[in-house]
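Please review this one:
***
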Amino acid sequence: MNSMAAPERDPVEKNQIKVWYRFVPREGWLPYDTEGLWATRLSEDTARVENVPFLQDGVAQGETVRFVTDADGLHWARERVKASGNCTVRVLSVPSGPLGRSAEAVYQRLAPFGLVGEVFSEELPLVALTVPADADLGQVKALLVRGREQGWWHFEEACVTDAWRDA
């Protein structure tokens, strides 16, 4: 199995750590079995997730998680302590569609709703987005569905709230 590191960057604050998630890779998808997310340490065993996950389901930016630290100093997520209300949605443009392989075109269509995110790579322009709790969830969902129907992209709901489901 391959492991995937979170995008490399210098910690902004000394209390910024990487919290790791372990999961079973999906068949036919990326072969990774771990993902590290940047987080701000809040206590000895809790941290707030600071970036959007590309692979781990069930977690969104802004959530507080409990972790354990192993003998190698890696911080492994154990449970969500406090939900953020944010959602995680992943969007991959259809290469033969009107947006081509452009992550920027995907982002431009969704940014007006206050969505922020990251791109996996140039080779795989998967856009992982945080949908803020106060976004117009109905409009975001409608655009995602319309884009799928018009051949712009595929999308998946990686972490959603009751408000998202009800929108």
Notes: Residues 1-9 have pLDDT under 50 and may be disordered. The two ends are 38 Å apart (CA to CA). Residues 147 and 153 are 6 Å apart (CA to CA). The chain is about 15% helix and 35% strand.
